[in-house]
Amino acid sequence: MIHKYVYGTPFETEAVVVPMEAASGAPAYGTVCLEHGFTFTCSLAEGDVVYGLGEANRGINKRGYCYISNCTDDPEHTEEKRSLYGAHNFVILSGEHTFGIFVDYPSRLTFDIGYTRMDTMTISCENADLYLYVIEGETPYKIVKQFRKIIGRSYIPPKFAFGFGQSRWGYRTKEDYREVAEGYRSNHIPMDMIYMDIDYMQDYKDFTVNEENFPDFPAFVKEMKDQNIRLIPIIDAGVKVEEGYKVYEEGIKNGYFCKREDGSEFVAAVWPGDTHFPDVLNPEARKWFGDQYKFLIDQGIEGFWNDMNEPAIFYTPEGVQEAAKAVKAFLADPNGDVPFFEGKDAVLELSNSKKDYEAFYHQTGKGRIRHDKVHNLFGCNMTRAAGEAFERIDSDKRFLMFSRSSYIGMHRYGGIWMGDNRSWWSHILLNLKMLPSLNMCGFLYTGADLGGFGADATRDLLLRWMALGVFTPLMRNHSAMGTRDQECFRFEGVEDFRHIVEVRYRLLPYLYSEYMKAALSDDMYIRPLAFVYPEDTHAVQVEDQLIVGNEIMIAPVYTQNADGRYVYLPEEMKFVKFLPNGTLYEEVLPAGHHYVKIALNEVPLFIRRGTCIPLAAPAEYADALDTAHMTLAGYPDCEYVLYEDDGIHKDYENPSNYRTLRS
Ligand code: GLC
């Protein structure tokens, strides 16, 4: 049962797609106060657990911290951070009272979950213009399912997007890409995609290709495709200010960029230097921006990643003026009243500043609105622009699309990656914990930069992280310029990397099948143990094991130098390790606690009692998988219903997509 409450005049975010009558009166389970903006307060009993918030810091149980929905380009995902790239305003309280809350509000929103007071959850924001949805259900899992029914079907990528992808910020020339392709193919490490970061563009201009490095781009796309490798270019939010650049000129001519209050063009510096932001909240401008993707699609491109769309701002001319003033004041009188810190802070605060987000406007279907009031919708609508354009360009075909910034609703148009993490062991665990929370909010196609984006990866870290990445729909190794080379073939003992990626491909038919079943029934592809074993008070506590699909549990190793880990089994399961020689180690383990040994070059998983999963023979790319001849691992005399389609088109409802396999 879902109750919808309306406060003030909400902005239509279009997160919810099912029309619903608004309820009268006050919501149950908490009190609403409209005195200073909006506040929803409810009590937390001892032992209550709070789930949700999608891409957010800390644990699967969100209790005990304060989180702020405020899409932010912040590459330092340290524990104290309150905001990351996405805004996913859905929480579920489980315990004495069990209910879900979705606050459909596109600006800054605070979730104080037992932080100020241990026994209180407070959700608050500045303006009381929002929709509040209160969702009742017996269990958190049932609440998620109801919520997912009202926000629409999750994005479905093409099947090749379940292959492995290599990425790095710094590939410039054809030779760079050829080296990566050759590195994988000659070492027989499977791969389906190489991602193109900003250097493929001409001077970081969206929808251009550097002519000198790629004189015949379609021929190069084909050269890669002939090796069964798809090139996936990045698209950034900011459009470079440059006379003669078509996208810039069209945008100016038609008034498609965000403007200052006085109607002049708003300038923000990002990678290309000065840019304008396409006004993706203006339906006409959104359509225009989406149509630009055709430039690359016409050259053979089948997927994209949308970046810098919080939108990230390095600085604005106005901000620089102010910072310069503060620095000058310090220099003029270093020992005087103007402290060093004022100058320093003014420079540090140049990026992503609140003031800048208050300085530009969107021309929405319902009039003009200041950016900060709808800040959390920018990335969502940039990706929607692309998703809607794909429908117009080729409505039968699936395109790969994922974004950095997002809001609930965007899950219908694309996935997300988890942004600029670091080569830290703690980030493997952060990655793991975000997965079920994202699934609750509809973001099924997701994954982190395997090996870590910032800082130098070590061989063991990459192997362990990839062994988790085997199970995330997006499996991509990505790293920042200036960090240690991180492609699998750069490390010693390449066969270990080959083995881990091969396991991904062996499991791909299962992972794809489970993803599709989840997407098509508004379900979760990855769940916390608590959702599967709600009666097991111990399972509820487990935050470093996950259920993937219906049949398997995963328990990755995320500690350096560990030769295994402790694992909790809520029921008897078959412990399976994919050994480097291609065989399986199998052992039935009873319910309870176990220490399981897992070497760096092994991939572990646990098959739930009475189930089995299909395994294909390894292949070097997704299309080469032979799904007609698969074996079944797990328990004998069981059935598995496999979903399989051509992976390209959208014939999802065809009953022939399902077939039963027997062990
Ligand atoms: C941002 C992205 C990162 C990318 C870089 C350069 O930091 O998050 O993935 O490599 O920009 O485009």
What does this molecule look like?
With 663 residues, this protein is of the alpha+beta class. Among the domains are: 2-151, Immunoglobulin-like; 319-348, no CATH class. The chain is 24% helix and 25% strand. Strands 24-23-21-18-14-13-12-26-25 form a 9-stranded parallel β-sheet. A 6-stranded antiparallel β-sheet has the order 27-28-29-34-31-32. A hairpin with a 2-residue loop joins β16 (268-270) and β17. α5 (283-291) crosses α10 (378-393), α7 runs antiparallel to α8 (340-348) and α12 (459-469) packs parallel to α13 (494-520). The chain starts with a strand and ends with a strand. The protein binds alpha-D-glucopyranose. The site of alpha-D-glucopyranose has 9 residues, from loops.
CATH architecture of the domain at 2-151: Sandwich
- Determine the oligomeric state from the structure: single chain
- As a percent range, the share of helical residues equals 10-25%
Which compounds are bound in this model? alpha-D-glucopyranose
Radius of gyration: 25 Å
Total strand segments: 38
Determine the structural class based on helices, strands and strand pairing.
Answer: alpha+beta
Overall shape: it is: globular
Provide mean pLDDT, rounded. Answer: 97
Secondary-structure blueprint:
Layout: E1 2-7, E2 31-33, E3 38-43, E4 49-52, E5 65-69, E6 86-87, E7 90-94, E8 99-104, E9 109-113, E10 120-125, E11 130-136, H1 140-151, E12 164-166, H2 174-187, E13 193-196, H3 217-225, E14 230-236, E15 239-240, H4 246-254, E16 268-270, E17 273-276, H5 283-291, H6 294-297, E18 303-307, H7 317-332, H8 340-348, H9 354-357, E19 361-364, E20 367-370, H10 378-393, E21 400-403, E22 406-407, E23 415-417, H11 425-440, E24 446-447, E25 449-450, H12 459-469, E26 475-477, H13 494-520, E27 526-528, H14 529-532, E28 546-548, E29 552-554, E30 564-569, E31 573-578, E32 584-589, E33 592-597, E34 603-608, E35 612-615, E36 631-634, E37 639-643, E38 658-662
Parallel strand pairs: 6-22, 12-13, 12-26, 13-14, 14-18, 18-21, 21-23, 23-24, 25-26
Antiparallel strand pairs: 1-11, 2-3, 3-10, 4-7, 5-9, 7-8, 8-11, 9-10, 15-17, 16-17, 19-20, 27-28, 28-29, 29-34, 30-33, 31-32, 31-34, 35-36, 37-38
Bound molecules: alpha-D-glucopyranose (GLC).
Alpha-D-glucopyranose (GLC) binds at residues 169, 197-198, 234, 307, 404, 419-420, 478.
